[in-house]
């Protein structure tokens, strides 16, 4: 196959080395995970490119590099010279110039800022406008594309610009698919776009000279376990048990004194449990759970409630748990007067040393909760309990792909995501992870010394069609990197493409989370 010899145009500041001086030129185009870079080796006869030469090339110069064939010589990179190296002998003199594209500006600055309730694209634009100075408009067209993600709160202190951009790119979604790419294009413009939405017009048909196709199970995860915020409770409605003397899970009774529902004095919901004693040593109430409603406190490791008392009590209170065998565990506490006090006490076998327990007490089957408030001697008065529940368990979901587990064995991933506030949301996230990770990764490296891309070079982040009959490949791949290598001695241009293909990571709300705006938040905080 006959092809035109490569053409090269180089500019460093005001210096334009002729193509005849180019011994070797390599341009590596990257995106998102890396910025583009270059290295060129020039003939340096008579030291003309040296500091005291006629055309000195120095570090810090901006420039541009073009590579093509014949009359088509498109620009591949707007660059900055970051390193120069001189090599000399009695008969040879060379200069090696290397550096990166203008994406190197993303590494210069650190950011201390808080972004609240901002769309992903607005954060990206702020970083570009105020911390890097990269243009993101071409011919009146905005190059930072919109996301569907609103970040509730992102806080940064002395964080490099590039790290924040990568975080937004990795977490923002568009039309239900997570993942954006960003790159600094040959004309030094910054583009931010959903992955796999830029399609190269270059045809690889009959131009591939060498290929290496890999299918790798290393990334496969066929069981996805997702934990959400540690706010799951029994009951799920944290006020349910104190809204009635006969809630759906059990029954309130008085152990000492009388018990009633009080709709006047309350801290949550519409009512509280009131216990009144007349001329007694204490006032006491208890909630007995129905059969089958017992609580496993190893899974729900806190007991939570609100308590207020009249001043006639001495301030001492006792919490007693009964298991299904009527074994006891008791915990002493004090409570103030004339206001509601919120109490949270650790429960479960892991914190048994905070309780006085009878031998054999079963933390996995708590049947009854008893609250006693004491007088000094004999007294009369009332106390109130509201918002009683067992909590502290993480919401969770486990999703499996049985076919993959059978074929290659169990391979697990576990994620803790503080923004997920129900088992349903954890299930959605687990399904998204499983769909993304249950299949092998496919990578492909292609080489060609006859490819002619005309005026539209293949860029990292592009999507390109590949057909390899022997490997059974006929689909689109994402360009992870593109490398253009010119050998001045042989007058050849070799193009090497590193390609990858993976399933898109579906956004959580694709699985029916559209109603929860906060499910798009990337601020990792527990719900109140």
Low-confidence stretches: 509-528
Cα Rg: 34 Å
The CATH superfamily of the domain at 232-393 is identified as Galactose-binding domain-like
- Please indicate the percent range of residues in DSSP E strands (runs of 2 or more): over 45%
What is the count of β-strands? 33
Quick structural summary:
Strand 31 and strand 32 form a beta hairpin. With 528 residues, this protein is mainly beta.
Account of the 3D structure:
The structure is a single chain. The protein is mostly beta strands and 528 residues long. Among the domains are: 108-195, Baseplate protein-like domains (Phage tail protein beta-alpha-beta fold, 3-Layer(bab) Sandwich), CATH 3.55.50.10; 223-229 and 396-437, no CATH class; 232-393, Galactose-binding domain-like (Jelly Rolls). It has helices at 120-132, 161-171, 402-408, 423-437, and strands at 6-12, 22-30, 37-43, 62-69, 75-88, 93-101, 110-119, 137-138, 141-142, 150-160, 173-174, 177-178, 180-184, 190-194, 210-216, 223-227, 232-234, 250-256, 258-262, 272-289, 302-309, 316-323, 328-334, 341-346, 356-357, 366-393, 396-400, 412-416, 441-448, 463-468, 473-487, 492-501, 505-506. The strands form 7 sheets. Strands 1, 2, 3, 4, 5, 6, 15, 29, 30, 31 and 32 form an 11-stranded antiparallel β-sheet that branches. Strands 17, 18, 19, 20, 21, 22, 23, 24, 25 and 26 form a 10-stranded antiparallel β-sheet that branches. Strands 11-12-33 form a 3-stranded antiparallel β-sheet. Strand 2 (22-30) and strand 3 (37-43) form a beta hairpin. Helix 1 (120-132) packs antiparallel against helix 2.
């Amino acid at each position: 196959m006959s092809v035109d010899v490569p053409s090269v145009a180089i500019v460093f500041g005001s210096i334009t080395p002729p193509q005849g001086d180019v011994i070797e030129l390599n341009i590596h185009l990257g995106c998102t995970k890396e910025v583009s870079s270059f290295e060129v080796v020039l003939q340096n006869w008579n030291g003309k490119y040296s500091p005291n030469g006629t055309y000195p090339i120095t570090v810090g110069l901006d420039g541009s590099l073009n590579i093509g064939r014949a009359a088509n010589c498109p620009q591949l990179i707007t660059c900055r010279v970051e390193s120069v190296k001189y090599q000399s002998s009695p008969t040879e003199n060379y200069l090696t110039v290397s550096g990166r594209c203008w994406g190197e500006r993303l590494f210069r600055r650190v950011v201390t800022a808080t972004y609240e309730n901002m769309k992903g694209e607005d954060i990206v634009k702020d970083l570009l406008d105020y911390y890097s100075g990269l243009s993101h408009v071409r011919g009146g067209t905005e190059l930072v594309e919109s996301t569907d993600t609103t970040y509730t709160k992102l806080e940064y202190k002395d964080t490099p610009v590039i790290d924040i951009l990568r975080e937004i790119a990795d977490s923002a979604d568009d039309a239900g698919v997570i993942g954006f790419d960003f790159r600094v294009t040959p004309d030094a413009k910054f583009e931010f776009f959903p992955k796999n939405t830029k399609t190269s017009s270059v045809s690889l048909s009959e131009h591939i000279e060498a290929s290496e196709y890999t299918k790798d199970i290393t990334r496969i995860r066929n069981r996805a376990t997702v934990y959400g915020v540690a706010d799951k409770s029994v009951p799920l409605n944290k006020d349910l048990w104190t809204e009635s003397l006969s809630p759906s899970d059990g029954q309130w009774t008085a152990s000492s004194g009388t018990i009633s529902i009080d709709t006047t004095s309350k801290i949550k919901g519409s009512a509280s449990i009131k216990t009144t004693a007349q001329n007694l040593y204490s006032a006491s109430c208890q909630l007995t759970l129905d059969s089958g409603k017992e609580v496993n406190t190893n899974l729900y490791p806190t007991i939570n409630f609100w308590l207020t008392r009249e001043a006639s009590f001495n301030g001492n209170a006792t919490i007693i748990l009964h298991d299904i065998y009527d074994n006891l565990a008791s915990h002493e506490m004090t409570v103030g007067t004339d206001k509601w006090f919120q109490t949270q006490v650790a429960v479960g076998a892991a914190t048994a040393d905070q309780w006085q327990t009878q031998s054999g007490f079963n933390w996995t089957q708590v049947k009854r909760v008893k609250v006693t408030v004491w007088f000094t001697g004999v007294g009369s008065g009332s106390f109130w309990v509201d918002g009683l529940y067992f909590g502290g368990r993480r919401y969770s979901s486990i999703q499996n792909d049985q076919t993959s587990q059978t074929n290659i064995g169990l391979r697990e991933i576990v994620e803790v995501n503080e923004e997920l506030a129900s088992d349903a949301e954890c299930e959605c996230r687990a399904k998204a992870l499983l769909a993304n990770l249950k299949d092998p990764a496919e990578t492909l490296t292609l080489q060609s010394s006859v490819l002619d891309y005309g005026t539209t070079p293949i860029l990292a982040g592009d999507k390109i069609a590949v057909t390899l009959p022997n490997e059974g490949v006929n689909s689109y791949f994402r360009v992870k990197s593109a490398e253009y290598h010119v050998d001045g001695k042989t007058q050849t241009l070799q193009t090497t493409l590193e390609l990858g293909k993976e399933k898109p990571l579906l956004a959580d709300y694709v699985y029916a989370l559209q109603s929860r705006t906060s499910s798009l938040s990337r601020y990792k905080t527990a719900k109140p």
